[in-house]
Amino acid sequence: MTQNQDIVVRLATVLARHTGNQKELACPVRGGDDLMTLLEDLDGHYAGLKTMICASREEIIDSINVYVNGDNVRYLQGLKTPLKGGDVINIIPAAAAG
């Protein structure tokens, strides 16, 4: 399997504190993976990361935006959004205007 078959996760600096300041992670693909499965796997390696992204009822925290290949998962299938090799996930804090 080539490296481009991994799922790439890009984290904002504030979230990278939970990964030893790694802002980009390559995650192997397994059949049937969705966003929640990926976040649970990442949390196994980087404890506390999932709680920075997900609310207790397994929804994405309002102040966090998650994009799969540029599309906000809130307009896809949320945490059940299916993933495949080559996908790029960006996880960033929501910008507030005021």
List the helices and strands and how they pair.
Blueprint: E1 7-11, H1 13-16, E2 24-27, H2 35-45, H3 49-53, E3 64-68, E4 71-72, E5 88-93
Parallel strand pairs: 1-5
Antiparallel strand pairs: 1-2, 3-4, 3-5
Question: Would you summarize the structure shown here?
Answer:
The chain has 98 residues and is an alpha+beta fold. The protein is 20% helix and 22% strand.
Average predicted local confidence, pLDDT: 89
The share of residues in extended strands comes to 15-25%
User: What overall form do the CA principal axes indicate?
Assistant: globular
Specify the structural class: alpha+beta
Helices and strands, in order, run as EHEHHEEE
Taking the sheet with the most strands, its summary is:
5 strands, mixed
At CATH level 2, the architecture is Roll
Strand order of the largest sheet: 2-1-5-3-4
Oligomer: single chain
